[in-house]
Model the fold of this input.
Amino acid sequence: MACKKASDNLIFSSLACLVLVLQMSGASCQGVQGGYWFPGSGVSASGIDSTLFTHLFCAFADLDTTTNTVVVSSANTQPFSTFTADVQQTNPNVVTLLSIGGGASSPGDFSNMASQTSSRQSFIDSSISLARSYGFDGLDLDWEYPESDTAMSNLALLLNEWRAAITAEAQSSGKDPLLLTAAVYYSSIHDGISYPVSSLSSSLDWINMMDYDFYGPGWSSVTGPPAALYNPGNQVSGDNGVTAWLQAGMPVQQMALGFPFYGRAWTLQDANDNGFFAPATGAAISSDGAIVYNQILSFITQNSATAAYNSTYVSNYCYSGTTWIGYDDTESISTKVAYAKEKGLLGYFTWHVGGDSNWALSQQASTTWNS
Done:
């Protein structure tokens, strides 16, 4: 939970901050202002303006399916091993976490690893060793997504054993315990399967809710707000996801709201029908319609595109001819961060920092959170 403004109850604020300090070695009363980075993001680790973040996630380490260990590819050894030193040049206090998995990894591989005690142990031990050798302050699991009730049960076992190993390692080494987080589906239920919320809350420092990719040309035949905070008459929204997690029992102070620094582009069926939920014929600009924020700004400038903000959905969009893009700009980012503060969430994160334009979105998020 973020520190309250001075006008709020001072005693409650002090207690809330004390809880955070005791619960999380790496997060302070600033809460979590997080961002993910990967080597091909378009910005170097040393080029990140880390003063705008409290936590930075380095993505992705991989699961070796032969040994069930966490590994980093040879191409990423250098940027990963120096990531913490690089981002701390600008902000010595920024906390770094090594993220494992990602959307390109196979959920079945994680399911197989988590199904046996011995393979879970190999995964856990290697993750801790790798994080320590590279100087990270924590570990982040990005398993997208456990695909059965059995996989969810094994996820619970994995997290419980991981937390116990982290605690034991800290005690034996005399170091602060590593943080342990997870990037999760926007809702506590995915394809009818429920997350083991009790294990998540007891074993993780917090969860990163991926509140985006609600609409995209690969799975939506109409345009839509890719990361809608609200969606009247529809269950798919960031607010709905937050509510579902809370109703499932996840503590509000262990939840971070996610938003994208990229959008999705469609080809309109009719250039004159250019609002939300307009018929579309498929992706525009890229094969899956993905386009990062700085490229969206260039598209608007180069094509004299019409840009608009919709406060009902809390989403921006632009269009030129038959090309239509839904995305987040400063208006929607500010509203989402203000929402996270009002709800008492721990903070927010973005995928990914390289998509920003001169740090405009990151600055807007930080300013809103700290105001």
Remarks:
- Residues 1-29 have pLDDT under 50 and may be disordered.
- The domain at 10-261+330-370 is CATH 3.20.20.80 (TIM Barrel).
- The CA atoms of residues 98 and 131 lie 7 Å apart.
- The longest strand covers residues 55-64.
